[in-house]
Amino acid sequence: MSIPACPTCGRELGPWEYSTCLSHLPALRDGTGFRRPPSQWAIADLAVAALESEAAPVAIHDVQRAVARDLGRDVYLPSLTALMGTDRRFCWSGRGVYGLFRHDRLPAVRTLSGLSRFVLAAFDAPMGLSDLSFVLKWSGYRFQDVSLEGALLRDAEEAGFRFAWPAPLCEREIRIVGARDVRRSIARELSVPDPDNGIWPAEELIERWRAKVAEGIDERTRRLSISAESMAAIDPDSPASLTVTDEMRAAALAEIDALRSADA
Ligand SMILES: [Zn+2]
Fold first, then answer.
1. What's the CA-to-centroid distance between 210 and ligand 1, angstroms?
2. Which end of the chain lies in a sparser environment, N or C, as judged by fewer CB atoms within 10 Å?
3. What tens digit of pLDDT does each residue of 177-220 get?
């Protein structure tokens, strides 16, 4: 089966979501409790419903604001924070930032190590640490490189991360030990049964990410080669740079920065 989607809006649903958006549930079913007004909903359901209409993951205080604005409920920020860290319908997207599965974030992941574990197991081959960082940022995750490196080193033993020598760290390759077993364990965790859609197809998500990682690495290679061409053009020793003014050089350097950054 393919990854289930809401019959009303077509957005994809994660393993722990209902078989429709909460926002679209009342039109479909009786007796579920969601026909009650939002004034009687649980806080986590309010947050899911608010996130359903966001275009991308948002910070927790923005979820709080959206709940007040869209559903007319004031929720206590510490309660919301605690729920978003534990209710698996919320997908972690960076420190204090959460979305839903529909925002292309991984279910059940709560840390940079957990994220790397999934990605390395799905890709099933060693990759440069800088490629890993690029792919994660390009996929929408928000973090500092130093946090990623720290998390990988700290959790290397437990998660089975292995780094190829030599230093420095950012130039090393990283892989995960027993990728196939890790994939199996991830698939087991995400294979949640749903009365309407059957078992959630975790293997399909793993395949999707295998392809996404390969695409991200290609994208980084492409940007780096454009950067290298621009570099040559502003190199003072290159004949191509003879007519380059300081202003043009500054603009080119800014462009190179933007190309190298995955945020672009
Ligand atoms: Zn929907």
1. 27
2. N
3. 999 999 999 999 999 998 888 999 999 999 999 999 999 999 99
User: What is the arithmetic mean of pLDDT over 164-184?
Assistant: 85
Split at pLDDT 50, 70, 90, the class of 91 is very high
How far are the Cα atoms of 75, 102, 145, 181, 231 from residue 3, in angstroms, in the given order? 32, 11, 32, 22, 44
Residues 252 and 124: their CA atoms lie apart, in Å, by 37
C-alpha–C-alpha distance, residues 212 and 56, integer Å: 18
Distance 248 CA to ligand 1 centre (A): 48
With cut-offs at 50, 70 and 90, classify the pLDDT of residue 240. Answer: low
Q: Could you tell me where the DSSP H helices lie in the chain?
A: 25-28, 43-52, 60-71, 77-86, 112-123, 129-138, 145-154, 156-159, 179-190, 202-234, 246-260
Report residues near ion ligand 1: CB below 5 Å: 6, 8-9, 21, 24
Query: Global pTM?
Result: 0.85
